[in-house]
Design brief:
Blueprint (H helix, E strand, L loop, with lengths): L1 E3 H7 L30 H4 L29 H7 L7 E6 L4 E6 L4 E7 L6 E6 L4 E9 L5 H12 L3 E3 L3 E6 L5 E16 H12 L5 E2 L8 E13 L4 E10 L5 H11 L4 E2 L4 E10 L4 E9 L6 H20 L2 E9 L23 H7 L11 H11 L20 E7 L5 H7 L16 H16 L2 E7 L6 E2 L6 E2 L5 H8 L2 E4 L4 H16 L2 E2 L10 E5 L5 E3 L6 E5 L4 E5 L9 E10 L19 E3 L4 E5 L1 E2 L2 E3 L4 E3 L4 E3 L18 E3 L4 E3 L2 H4 L5 E4 L4 E4 L3
Parallel strand pairs: 15-16, 15-17, 17-18, 18-21
Antiparallel strand pairs: 1-31, 2-3, 3-13, 4-5, 4-10, 5-6, 6-12, 7-9, 8-9, 8-21, 9-11, 11-12, 14-27, 19-20, 22-26, 23-24, 23-27, 25-26, 28-29, 30-31, 32-33, 34-35, 36-37
Length: about 700
């Protein structure tokens, strides 16, 4: 018998136990009266004390004022935390990428792809309602950084069209692997639908290999697409890619969120992982605060880029205002035409920090003359000048940071940081105009020093600069930009983002604003969620409501800061309850959780995610192999034990070794030795197997 694991993952959520954080209600002291035993004191229910049940109040003589079966004191928490209210989801086991992928149930088309020799390099997905198609692939690493891995894959995509300049965030996954998320436009050579593009990109990513069981090619056709891509570096020799595509140069907010859920890194785990239920309660605060400092290159080629920021500034303000962030903006120029020790660097332009968008748009135009661009030091100088910060709640000072505000620094430049260039390139003028990143080790030493200083100040930085590793061009008759060396690394280390100076400035500034809302949010989760399972309820006791995920009127999620952000009419009023429920990944031998029966499962087997009890069957694509059936290596299907590759030629292997039938030798498992470039460690056979680079 073969039982579908997807069916179990979606429907059997009722076996989960809700933790104490979901109990809801208010503490009841000895002097408080609760006539209806709904865990709400009578004076809390009748807030104005007039003895009547007014709008927004609950009835102190009824424990279920609205008659929905939920006691008034548990209304908000139950709407989010009760397992029967969980968001439906599915988990797909992908042996070829050594991955479990969790998706919203609306991503209803999903399955494993195969090569002609019946290998399983990955899986494909499609949400027909939002027309978002995606694929996950395991590949041999080609060497270099995460950015190099992604750039090499995008070079392969160029055979099908033109990938645009990316916007990138770097982070570490829940299971400790370095990763990045990149978003970029894609102009296809011919019109096609999203699934057709994903099928073609999957083949291109594997060196042109033919694939079977790909996505049905349905949906709207276009030449312009919006792509998001997740890159996870599993080892020096293996990498996992997950990319999602939607037709259109601009896509809906709902499609953007679906792409985020697929590629933000939180919904992908190694095989054998399972999920646990978590519920986090909060009390809403009035507002969040952010001070945003722009450090602007004023060298001779920057006039048009300053104008581009001025023109797009409204897009940044719209996002911040929708999230009701109390923000201020300030500008510091690099004084590129002045000596290295010019004392004016770090001085704020105009009147300093301002909440007046028009004033900021005037301040950002600092001129363009010169060629010395010490942006990282200028930012530190400006922050130090703005200290000490004013106390929380005190009157704001335009020359000072606010003690209760998140600190954001945005570096805008078409050159490397000057100090990094001097160290990495063998001299301050040695690589002027050179489009390749410099590689002298001293450059990383200088960069690490800047990273430490920005982290010590609690600042999150952005880099709106030239692409790494080869710079970028804005097009015919416009500027060619050096790689933004130094700036990009600092942004990645502090939780910010890289946005290409050759890309869409409006999108860059919207990204700045969205990250600023996440940094300034007070709703930090206790664990990293699988974001496709997030469910949020808010309201006063007895008057809960579920909030949709939306960047317009709803909540959104920042995977790097691990915070919830509210937008528009969905933002809770001060004092309201906020409850966030979700699933988080767990796995055998996870050092962050206590021992439990799931730790007894061997690597690659499955612990029942619905009941937190060990079943330990071998996962095989969308099913668990039961009875006498076993999972067959490479093909990810259940079959008879007689179909398993024989290991008898090796004889009896010593503990800790596995049989390699090709060499007739007992060898150390590939999980311990790693694999060569172009190979992937197969978690079923524990041997390296080839993959097209």
């Amino acid at each position: 018998m073969v039982r579908s694991r997807l069916f179990a993952a979606v429907l059997l959520v009722g076996l989960w136990a809700v933790g104490p954080a979901c109990s809801g209600g208010s503490p009841q002291g000895p002097a408080q009266v609760d006539n209806d035993d709904d865990k709400l004191p009578d004076d809390t229910e009748d807030r104005n004390g007039n003895g009547q049940v007014d709008p927004g109040e609950t009835d102190p003589n009824s424990n279920d004022t609205d008659g929905d079966g939920i006691p008034d004191g548990e209304e908000v928490s139950t709407l989010a935390c009760d397992p029967s209210n969980d968001r439906p989801f599915a988990v797909l086991d992908v042996p070829g990428a050594d991955a479990e992928v969790l998706v919203d149930a609306q991503v209803s088309v999903r399955g494993l792809v195969r090569t002609n020799d019946d290998r399983n390099p990955g899986a494909v997905f499609h949400d027909p309602g939002l027309d978002v198609a995606a694929a996950i692939l395991g590949k041999g690493a080609q060497g270099g950084s995460l950015s190099n891995q992604r750039a090499q894959l995008m070079d392969g995509f160029a055979a099908l069209g033109n990938p645009g300049s990316p916007r990138v965030r770097t982070f570490v996954t829940t299971q400790g692997f370095p990763a990045e998320q990149a978003r970029f436009p894609f102009r296809a050579d011919q019109a096609m639908n999203g699934p057709a593009l994903v099928n073609a990109l999957s083949s291109a990513a594997l060196g042109g290999v033919a694939l079977q069981d790909t996505l049905p090619e349905v949906g709207a056709e276009s030449r312009d697409f919006t792509l998001s891509m997740l890159t996870i570096q599993r080892s020096a020799n293996t990498v996992v890619f997950l990319f999602a595509a939607t037709p259109g140069a601009e896509i809906s907010d709902a499609a953007r969120i679906r792409q985020e859920e697929l590629t933000d890194g939180t919904n992908v785990a190694r095989r054998g992982s399972f999920t646990r239920h978590v519920c986090d309660p909060f009390v809403a605060e009035a507002k969040a605060y952010a001070d945003i400092l722009w450090v602007v290159d004023d060298s001779g080629s920057m006039a048009d880029d300053q104008m581009a920021v001025r023109a797009a500034a409204g897009a940044m303000a719209e996002v911040l205002e929708a999230a009701q962030v109390d923000f201020r903006l300030a500008v510091a120029r690099m004084y590129a035409n002045r000596p290295e020790n010019d004392q004016r660097r770090g001085r704020l332009e105009g009147d300093g920090f301002t909440s007046d968008l028009n004033k900021f748009q005037e301040d950002i135009l600092v001129g363009a003359d010169g060629g010395w661009e010490p942006g990282l030091q200028t930012g530190l100088d400006a922050l130090n000048r703005a200290l000490p910060a004013t106390a929380p709640g005190a009157a704001a000072d335009p020359q000072r940071l606010r003690g209760d505000a998140a600190t954001i620094v945005i570096h805008l430049s078409d050159e490397r940081d000057q100090h990094v260039e001097c160290a990495a390139c063998g001299g301050c003028e040695a690589a002027e105009g050179e489009a390749r990143s410099c590689t002298r080790p001293q450059g990383q030493v200088v960069t690490d020093e800047f990273i430490g200083q920005y982290q010590a100040m609690g600042a999150v930085t952005f880099a709106i600069v030239g692409d790494l590793p080869d710079g970028c061009s804005q097009g015919v008759g416009r500027d060619d930009f050096e790689p933004g060396q130094g700036y990009v690394e600092v942004a990645a280390a502090t939780g910010g983002q890289f946005g290409s100076l050759c890309g869409d400035m409006r999108q860059n500034l919207q990204d700045v604003a969205r990250v600023a809302t996440g940094v300034s949010s007070t709703y930090a989760l206790s664990a990293k969620p699988a974001s496709a399972t997030l469910r949020v309820a808010i309201g006063l006791p007895g008057h809960g409501r579920v909030v949709p995920r939306s960047g317009v009127n709803g909540f959104d999620y920042d995977p790097v800061q691990n915070t919830i952000v509210f937008f528009g009419d969905a933002r809770p009023a001060e004092g309201e309850e906020v409850v966030v429920a979700y699933r988080r990944w767990d796995w055998a031998n996870n050092p962050d959780t206590p021992n439990d029966p799931c730790d007894d499962c061997v690597e690659g087997s499955w612990c029942n995610p619905e009941a937190d009890r060990a079943m330990c069957e071998e996962p095989c694509g969308e099913v668990l192999c039961e009875g006498e059936l076993v999972c067959l290596p490479d093909t990810a299907r259940c079959g008879e034990e007689s179909e398993l590759p024989t290991e008898t030629p090796c004889g009896e292997c010593d503990p800790g070794l596995v049989c390699n039938p090709g060499t007739l030798e007992c060898v150390v498992p590939c999980e311990e030795t790693g694999c060569e470039a172009g190979e992937l460690c197969n978690s079923s056979t524990h041997l390296c197997q080839p993959f097209s680079p």
